[in-house]
């Protein structure tokens, strides 16, 4: 079985998913589990930093109440050095904990990106036919990118601020418990306000990420080479700009709402906490004025210093809580993709074939894209294709020709019957075996934005330069490549738009030739070629097909005359089967298709 990313395993939810927030929290916490050793070091640094920080007010009290009034210069020097040492130690601890926590956070983000990408790689072709590319890109880029602050600093911030607050409260109680009670009276109210603000921002964050995904989809579709060509040739450039502007305007509104939501309430909290020292001075003065126990100047200054020291981590802690609740919306969107059911999976103990012979059988095959589909796309398909033989599949558009061919490499799984390779159900074979055994050249050629050589080596990374050139020669494209200024180092451009349709198709054929699979699927592989180029490439395909099992989805019937068998599909069923001559003699559906093809070929273009 192909090993899965450990994160995918860790994040696979139970069958009955809980809707309670703690389930989300526990899942998020598990993201950091592989790095618990480093986080323990961060925790230790945070604890030391908090202890050192709490020491400063006590040193200050000793300076004000003892060293200065008693004129003890030696003690004063030691206390001052102690305060300087605490500042230096805090600086060092802060740098170290930032380094470690940032590294851990970035590793978690890397794990998330990799896990989402791997899950998407395992999704069936059907998923990508119904999902906008921009939406997929937004989940990986915007959603995970939006979590950067949370995963890189939140864990450290929570531990650091919580430790600082606890240590400060303990020290404040040790100094004066009455002033401590006054300082903490409003803290529960502040916590409630922060949680409320966090819930409100979480809702807005969900809307904002959806809007960013919509914008990403528009950019991906309209600013690709195909999108630019379509927009300009249809005169829709201004309209597309207006649509993008409208989407961007909605994003502006959501961003402003997200940043301003609860801002006044949080500001009030800050004002109240900033005014707390004045309240403490007033309380100390009133207590002393009414005959209560007096608070020494040193104790009062040290307490206010502690209270102000607690102010910063408390506000930070409240803000972190708001940020974490907001980030839950991003985590949920990422987990949605990680929880996507994988339709096509590898068996726990798959069958491996060193080198497939190429015997293909379709045994009473049914297929539907949707379980609720009234009529299946394919029904009752029975085909026996011995190794080395050729099958041509013809029929009207929408008859299921391409779908039939995609069942062999398991781009889709049958919903009834089975497809076998060398007598083994393709669902029982390992993915590596299928990838090595079946080569596909589809009618929609896809080339990477890389050099010609890199595009060809995508099929066989270890291929030598001579192997690449030999494959290009067989595909009738070597002379053209060699004539380019940069030869095989020429960049093909986005989706190969620096090459013509016929040239791209021949590069795709060369790529498959280089892989050398025993089974070839040619899904209208010559449909983009002119008549002269088609003839040359067809000769190359014929030579390549010698001794290989070949399934050809035919657009031009002239290319399938010599097939060992021809299957005519209509509405997902085989209505005729035989050789070219046998089917012509029957005078049925195939003969009608040939007559139509011949008429189209001989009709002069006006």
Automatic annotation (TrEMBL):
It holds the Pfam family ABC_tran. CDD domains: ABC_6TM_exporter_like. InterPro entries: AAA+_ATPase, ABC1_TM_dom, ABC1_TM_sf, ABC_transporter-like_ATP-bd, ABC_transporter-like_CS, P-loop_NTPase, Type_1_exporter. The keyword Transmembrane applies. Residues 40-326 form the ABC transmembrane type-1 domain. Its main location: membrane. Residues 360-596 form the ABC transporter domain. This is ABC transporter ATP-binding protein.
């Amino acid at each position: 079985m192909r090993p899965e990313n450990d994160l995918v395993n860790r994040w696979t939810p139970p069958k009955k998913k809980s809707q309670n927030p703690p389930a989300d929290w526990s899942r998020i916490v598990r993201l950091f589990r592989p790095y618990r050793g480093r986080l323990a070091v961060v925790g230790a640094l945070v604890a030391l930093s908090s202890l050192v920080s709490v020491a400063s007010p006590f040193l200050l009290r000793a300076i004000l109440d003892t060293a200065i009034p008693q004129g003890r210069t030696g003690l004063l020097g030691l206390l001052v050095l102690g305060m300087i040492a605490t500042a230096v130690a805090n600086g060092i601890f802060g740098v170290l904990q930032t380094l470690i926590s940032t590294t851990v956070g970035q590793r978690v983000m890397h794990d998330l990106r990799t896990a989402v990408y791997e899950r998407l790689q395992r999704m069936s072709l059907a998923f990508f036919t119904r999902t906008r590319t921009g939406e997929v890109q937004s989940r990986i880029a915007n959603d995970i990118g939006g979590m950067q602050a949370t995963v890189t600093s939140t864990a450290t911030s929570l531990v650091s601020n919580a430790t600082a607050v606890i240590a400060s409260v303990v020290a404040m109680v040790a100094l004066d418990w009455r002033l401590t009670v006054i300082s903490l009276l409003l803290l529960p109210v502040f916590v409630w306000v922060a949680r409320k603000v966090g819930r409100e921002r979480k809702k807005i964050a969900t809307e904002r990420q959806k809007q960013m995904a919509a914008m990403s989809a528009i950019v991906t579709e309209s600013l690709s080479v195909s999108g630019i060509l379509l927009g300009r040739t249809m005169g829709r450039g201004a309209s597309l700009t207006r649509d993008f502007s409208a989407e961007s305007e909605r994003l502006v509104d959501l961003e402003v709402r997200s940043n301003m939501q609860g801002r006044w309430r949080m500001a009030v909290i800050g004002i109240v906490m900033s005014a707390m020292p004045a309240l403490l001075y007033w309380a100390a003065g009133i207590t002393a004025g009414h005959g209560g126990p007096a608070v020494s100047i040193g104790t009062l200054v040290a307490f206010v210093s502690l209270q102000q020291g607690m102010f910063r981590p408390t506000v930070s802690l409240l803000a972190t809580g708001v940020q974490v609740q907001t980030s839950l919306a991003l985590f949920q969107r990422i987990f949605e993709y990680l929880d996507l059911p994988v339709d096509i999976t590898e068996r726990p103990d798959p069958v491996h074939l060193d080198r497939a012979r190429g015997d293909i059988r379709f045994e009473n095959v049914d297929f539907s894209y949707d379980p609720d589909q009234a009529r299946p796309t394919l029904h009752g398909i029975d085909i026996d294709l011995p190794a080395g033989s050729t099958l041509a599949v013809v029929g009207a558009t929408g008859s299921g020709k391409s779908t039939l061919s995609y069942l062999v490499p398991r781009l889709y799984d049958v919903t009834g019957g089975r497809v076998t390779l060398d007598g083994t159900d393709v669902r029982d074979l390992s993915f590596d075996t299928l990838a090595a055994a079946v080569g596909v050249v589809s009618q929609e050629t896809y080339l990477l934005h890389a050099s010609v050589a890199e595009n060809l080596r995508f099929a066989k990374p270890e291929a030598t330069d001579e192997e690449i050139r030999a494959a290009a020669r067989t595909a009738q494209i070597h002379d053209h490549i060699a004539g380019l200024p940069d030869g095989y180092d020429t960049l093909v451009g986005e989706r190969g738009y620096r090459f013509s349709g016929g040239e791209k198709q021949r590069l795709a054929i060369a790529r498959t030739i280089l892989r050398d699979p025993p089974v070839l699927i040619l899904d209208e592989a010559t449909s983009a070629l002119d008549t002269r180029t088609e003839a040359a490439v067809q000769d190359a395909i014929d030579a390549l097909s010698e001794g290989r099992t070949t399934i050809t989805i035919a657009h031009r019937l002239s290319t399938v005359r010599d097939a060992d068998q021809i299957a005519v599909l209509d509405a997902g069923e085989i209505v005729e089967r035989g050789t070219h001559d046998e089917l012509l003699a029957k005078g049925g559906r195939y003969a009608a298709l040939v007559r139509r093809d011949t008429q189209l070929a001989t009709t002069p273009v006006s």
